[in-house]
Structure formats: structure tokens, C-alpha cells
Amino acid sequence: MILGKFVVTAAIAYLLGAIPFALIVSRRMAGVDISKHGSGNIGGTNVLRVVGKKAGVIAIVLDVSKAVVAVTLARLVIGDSVLLVAGFPFNWQVGQVIAALMVMVGHDWSVYVGFRGGKGVAAYYGSWLAMCPGAALFGGVIILFTILVTKYMSMGSMLGALGILCLFMVVTVVAEFDVVYSVYLVYSLVTAGLIVYQHRSNIGRLRSGTELRLGAPHERVDP
Fold it and tell me: What angle do CA 122, 35, 145 make, to 5 degrees?
């Protein structure tokens, strides 16, 4: 059953996305619950700040990897199947977008830790690495440039996602609303909104001038 393939893809992606690698890594490497330290965010940036660079990089790489795996599995599970919904063809590329979104949902609201989670940025970029590496590179350059100039990871994350959205707005128009690019445009719109929403507390701190910069003094827990 074709519909079943999409349901299975979404379920697997959510369960993979929900794995709280930041929590696992911080407990394994420092014996601490990262949700009770620093910003309380269950994400790689908080691990980076509280536990250290090595643990932070490991957590971020694992969060990126789970998105890559979920999106790649979507291609394998759906294969050449096509599900027509109101005349619109749901193919493996649409399945990948669904998987990518569910990975982010799982990461942000993990069933394993009481529907808490991170902000989904690493999972977001992992999904683009699997679907469209060029978009991941484009957004990554924006993040890197923003961090170099401002030292704000949160600002870089939001601007990177918004940059990818603008990229697909242009590409979709140039490609005369090609189906694949249109699907990517919708995904980039939804996920940019989700990332900005998840950073709402950071936006408040940025406005008040209290947001922590990378490299600034902060709470640190030694292993």
C-alpha cells in the first residue's frame, strides 16, 4: 500500500529525530543532564558551551546524521511509488521532505524525553545535505559569516534558514515552478518559520542585548 510507505517513512523519521543525542552525549562524557545546565536546550550548541568542543561537535554531527539517515531511508522505502493526492503526485522527493520535517519535529519535541528537545537546526541542515547539498552549503556559508561577524549562533541559525528560503524563492521562479523546487520551497518556508519560532527566546535576548556570544564566559561543567 503506497500510503503505508509514507506513513512508515514519517514514523521512522520522527523516531530517529527524537533521539536526544545532546542529552546522551553530555551524560556519557560529563555525567550531566544538559537540560538542567546552560540554556537548558537539548541541542549541540548548549553541549558545546557547557561540556566542551569535543562533546558539542559529536552531538551536532549525530544530530545532522540522523536527518541524513531518515531522508535517505525515505528514498529507499518509497522507491518509485507515486501517491496521488487531489491530483498532486506524492513521490519519493515529497516523501523525503515529509521525513525531513518529521525529523525536526522529533528533535524539537522528543517522545523519549517528555516532548522536550532542541531547536532543530542541525537536523534541518542534515536534511538539506541529503536532499540538496547545495542548499546546505549556501545556508552554512551564511551561518559561518554571521558567526564570524556577530558571534551569535542563534542569529546565524535563523539567517541561514531564511537565506535558504530566499534561495528557493528565486530558484522556483527561475525554474518556472518546477514541482521538485516548489516542494523544496514549501519545506524551506515551513522549516524557516519553525526555526525562528524555536528561537523566540533568543530573539528576546538579542533585542535586550543579553544573548550569549560564542566564546563568551558561560556555565561550564567539567567531566
Answer: 35
